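Illustration: Octanoyltransferase LipM.
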Amino acid sequence: MEQWRYVVTEPMSPAMNMAVDEAILQLHSEGKVPPTVRFYTWDPATLSIGYFQKAIKEINLEEVQRRGLGFVRRATGGRAVLHDQELTYSVIVSEDHPRMPSGVTEAYKIISLGLLHGFQNLGLAAEMVSLASEEEKEKYNSPGSSACFDSPSWYELVVEGKKVAGSAQTRQKGVILQHGSILLDMDVDLLFSLLHFPSDRVKQRMMDSFRQKAVTINEVSPRPVSLQEAIEAFSKGFASGLDVELVPSALTDEERALAEELAATRYATDEWNLRR
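Result:
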């Protein structure tokens, strides 16, 4: 069975978390590190936004700061995600890897099988729903909100008809980076306090829609699930979903050094985070 690297990093700043993902991508493209599955958390709790989002227009940056939260723009698309009571994963693998289909949508599906197996390992009746039809898209989408879990992907992971994971993907230097948020719990009021809306009425409508279409693990689990239990369930899930052996490892010194450079020159700068 093919071996991939499995890394659990310590809680990191928003800039470092995004920089580490990019550092792994770059060094994997150079053949210096193997395909990698990484799990991580955030210190402080952080609002991340998609690459194409307009930060000043869509995000209440004063409230983010007032709440003591971190803020960062991802290199991937999608909408705003509150990284708080959750586990973040990333998968980095070459586009030409024999297990990866050439199409973006199908590669997304293959990687997301790891998530599906992870939820099932926790005893949840998770399923992957194809959003091939407009009707299916509408079931999991709601208009206007900047929140990630309002935005449908190509395939949606759902439990009891509600979305349970939000993922995004980018391809650079011949490498796929897919990362996403696995919610254990969530403060919906906090998330929506960080977003701009034209009026309180619209905000309330969006919150109601969000609660109807998204759910956390601990809302549907028959018992509380800890962060460590989630890491174990999803590491096994990615191993079985990708049909590989995950070998526990650590970041290399080169990865950490490159990540620190990328954090300082890109992900911690206003030029990057407020660029749109």
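Reading the tokens back as a structure: The domain at 3-269 is CATH 3.30.930.10 (BirA Bifunctional Protein; domain 2).
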